[in-house]
Amino acid sequence: MSTARHSTTRSLAAHGVLILYTVIALFPVFVIVVNSFKSRRAIFADPLALPTSETFDMVGYQTVLKQGDFLLYFQNSMIVTVASLFFVLLFGAMAAFALSEYRFRGNLLMGLYLALGIMIPIRLGTVAILQIMVASGLVNTLTALILVYTAQGLPLAVFILSEFMRGVSDDLKNAGRIDGLSEYTIFLRLVLPLVRPAMATVAVFTMIPIWNDLWFPLILAPSEATKTITLGSQVFIGQFVTNWNAVLAALGLAIVPVLVLYLIFSRQLIRGITAGAVK
Amino acid sequence: MAQRKPFRWHIAVFLAPAVLVYTAIMIVPLIGTLNLSLFNLTEAGERVFVGLRNFATLFGDPRWSESFWNALANNGWFFLVHMLVQNPVGVMLAALLSSPRLRMAAFYRTAIFIPTILSFVIVGFVWKLILSPIWGIAPGMLDAVGLKALFAPWLGREEYALTTLALISVWQFVGIPMMLIYAALLSIPDEVIEAAEMDGVTGWSQFRKIKLPLILPSIGIISILTFVGNFNAFDLIYVSQGALAGPNFSTDILGTFLYRTFFGFQLQLGDPHMGATIATAMFGIILVGVCVYLFAIQTRLRRYQF
C-alpha cells in the first residue's frame, strides 16, 4: 500500500514538471496565435488577453490571404519536404546498413567521409552549388532544392541510423541468412521494420531544417512559382514590418503546416515503437 | 593459394545512391570553398595563389584576430550553456516521459517538441516581442509577481545578450535531446527493467544504475550533435541581432563572423577569400571536436545488444 501512495506522489511530481515545461514551451506560440486574432489596438493594450467579441479581428489574416499566394507556397514546401525526406530515409538507411552490417576495407573511412557532412554546413558551398544548378538548368525548379536537401540530410541520417542498426541482434540476421534470404531482403524485411522508431526520429529531424530553410529557396528558387512558405512569409514580414496584425497572422499560418507534418510523423513514431522491437 | 573473396556487390548497391548525391552536391562544392581560402586578389584584381597567408592574416593581423577570438570565445560560451542546460533538461524530460503508465505522455512530448519545429524567423521575432521593454510581456509578468526590479532589456545589454540568446536557443532545441533519449529509453527491453524491479532497484537508482549506462551512447551522439550545431549556428543571432551581432559584437559567433566577411555588410565589401579562410578555420575546429569524440569517447562507450 505504501508503494501505491509513493508512486502516486511520484507521478504527480512528474506531471507537475512536465506541465510546467509544456507551458514554457507553448507560451510564445500562444502569444502569436492569440494576438493574430486581435485588433491592432488590443494587441498593444493587453498582449496576453484572449480575444473578446470587442477585440476580435481577422484583419491580419485577410491581409495575408489577399497579398500572398500562400496556397501555392504551401504546396511547394510540401513537395520539397516530402520528396527530400523520402530520399534521405531510403538512401540513408541503405548506406547505414552497409556501414553497420558489413566489414569491408575502408568501412571506417567511408563512415567518416559521410559523417563529414554533419560538421560542415552545406551553405559554405553555396557558390559552387549555384554554379552546378545553373549549368544543369535546374535554377528555379523544386528539383534543385530536393537535391540539395537530400545531400544535406544524408550525413545525419546515416550517422543516427547506423548507430541504431548496430543494436539490431546479429542472431536475427544470421537466422535470416540461414533461411536463404538475400541481403536486400534482410535489409527490407528484417532490419528496416526494427529501426522504424529511429527512422521516425530521423524523419522529424530532417524535415524541420528543410521546411524552415530560407537560404536555398532564396538563392536557388526565388521565382514566384517555386517560392516555399518560409521564403514567402519572410518576404511578407519584410514588406509589412509595421503591420503587426498581418505579420502575426503570417507567422500563425506558417506554424500550422509544419505542425501537421510533425503530428503525422509523431504518430508514426509511436506506432513504430509499439509494433517494432525484437520480441 | 587461398581464393580471393568475391566482390560483394550488395555493399556497393547499398552505398552508391547516398555516396553519389552527397559527393556531387556537398563535398565537391565544399572542396571548392576550402580551395578558395588559399587564394587572394592582387591590387590589380587578379586571383593568385597565396598559400597559408590568409590564415596568417586571420590569426595575426589585429584587425582580424580580435574579431576571430571574440567570436570563438562567444561560441564556446554558447556551447557551454547548451551542454549545461539543454542536455540535462532534455534527459530529465525524457526520463519523466518514459515512466510507465504516465498519462498524456504523447501530449507532453508533442507540446515540448513544438518550439523545435518553428523557424528561426518565428522564434527570433516572438522572443524579441516578449522581451521587448516597450511592448513588454516580460516586464508585465515580472511586475505581476512583484519582481519588476529584475527586468532588464536582456537582448540589448552586452553582458546578458549572448546568454539570453543561448537560452532562447536551448528553449527551441531541447526537444531534440528529449526525443533521442526518449527513443533510447523505450528501446530498453521490459525484461531488463522487470529484472531490476525484482531485485528492488527502482526509481532514481534504477535510472542511474540500469538506464543511464544503456543510454550513454545516445547521450554521446547528442553531445557531438550539440557541439557541431552550436559551432555552425548563425540563424538565430542573425534574425534577432542582425549581421552585426550587437550590441557591440557581444553576440558575435563564428557563423555571423563568417557571414559578414563572406557577404559584406554596410560599408565593408564581401571578401570571399577571407570568408573561405574563416570557413576553413571553423571546419578545423569542428573536425578536432569530432575526432576527440570518435576516437577518445565513442570507442570507450559500451554497446549492449538485446
Automatic annotation (TrEMBL), chain A:
Localisation: Cell membrane
What is the membrane topology listed in the Swiss-Prot or TrEMBL record? Multi-pass membrane protein
Annotated ranges, domain ABC transmembrane type-1: 74-265
The record ties this protein, via Pfam families, to: BPD_transp_1
Family classification: Belongs to the binding-protein-dependent transport system permease family.
Q: Which domain of life is it from?
A: Bacteria
The main location class comes to membrane
For whether the record's keyword set contains Glycoprotein, the answer is no
The UniProt entry, under CDD domains, shows:
TM_PBP2
Q: Kindly list the GO CC terms recorded for this protein.
A: plasma membrane
UniProt keyword annotations, A-Z: Cell membrane, Membrane, Transmembrane, Transmembrane helix, Transport
Source species of the chain: Paracoccus halophilus
BP GO terms, sorted: transmembrane transport
**Where is the chain membrane-spanning?**
12-34, 78-99, 111-134, 146-165, 186-211, 246-265
Task: Give the matching PROSITE patterns.
Answer: ABC_TM1
Question: What is this protein called in UniProt?
Answer: Carbohydrate ABC transporter membrane protein 2, CUT1 family
UniProtKB/TrEMBL annotation, chain B:
Q: Which InterPro entries match?
A: ABC_transporter_permease, MetI-like, MetI-like_sf
Q: Which residues form the ABC transmembrane type-1 domain?
A: 72-295
Q: Name one GO cellular component term.
A: plasma membrane
User: Which CDD domains does the entry mention?
Assistant: TM_PBP2
Primary subcellular site in the record, as a coarse category = membrane
| Location of the protein in the cell | Cell membrane
Topology versus the membrane: Multi-pass membrane protein
Tell me which Gene Ontology terms the entry assigns under biological process.
Answer: transmembrane transport
Q: Where are the transmembrane segments?
A: 12-32, 77-98, 110-130, 160-185, 214-234, 274-296
Signal peptide location: none
Q: Keywords in alphabetical order, please.
A: Cell membrane, Membrane, Transmembrane, Transmembrane helix, Transport
Similarity comment: Belongs to the binding-protein-dependent transport system permease family.
Give the protein's recorded name. ABC transporter permease
Originating organism: Paracoccus halophilus
Please spell out the taxonomic lineage of the organism that makes this protein: Bacteria, Pseudomonadati, Pseudomonadota, Alphaproteobacteria, Rhodobacterales
